[in-house]
Amino acid sequence: METFIEEFHSNIEKKAQSRSIETINHSGPHESAIILGTIFKYAKNHVRMYVGDFCGDISNNSFYLEHLTNFLEADKKLNVLVKDLHSTNPSEVYKKISLYDGFSDNVNIVHSNVTLPPGGDMELLQKNGQ
């Protein structure tokens, strides 16, 4: 019998493979990391994302980091709008993205104090041509 996390992961994989636009409810950092890792795993060429920060359990998750790394190494485009870049203990995900930001035209990190509502669109990135 599958555990909750295994079942959740399987469900997310199916949604990604079918390119579902359904909103996904989740309850914690492990589930968030599964969603983000799966987005990078199935993204064809471009990911836009808004994050509050790169700290904590989500940004140090190995599944997320593995698929982000594969995405970046495939020279795909990543635009990140981040609310809080200031951290005395940067996460593994932030370290990885930072390696590419400034050295690759495909990776761009933008700092903003704007808070997007849950499910908010990425107008700020799109307005800036990102």
Structure description:
By secondary structure, this protein is an alpha/beta fold. It has one domain. The chain has 5 helices and 3 strands. It has helices at residues 4-17, 29-42, 62-73, 92-100, 123-127; strands at residues 46-51, 77-82, 107-111. Helix 3 (62-73) links the parallel strand 1 and strand 2. The longest helix has 14 residues, at 4-17. It is globular, with a radius of gyration of 15 Å.
List keywords for this structure.
130 residues; 5 helices; globular; 13% strand; alpha/beta; 3 strands
The coarse overall form would be globular
- Computed structural class: alpha/beta
Strand count:
3
Please report the distance between the alpha carbons of the first and last residues.
44 Å
The total number of structural domains is: 1
Low-pLDDT residue intervals, each spanning 5 or more residues: none
Briefly say what this structure is.
This protein has 130 residues and is an alpha/beta fold. 42% of the residues lie in helices and 13% in strands. α1 (4-17) packs parallel to α2 and α2 (29-42) runs parallel beside α3 (62-73).
How does the SSE layout of this entry go?
Blueprint: H1 4-17, H2 29-42, E1 46-51, H3 62-73, E2 77-82, H4 92-100, E3 107-111, H5 123-127
Parallel strand pairs: 1-2, 2-3
Helix pairs in contact: 1-2, 2-3, 3-4
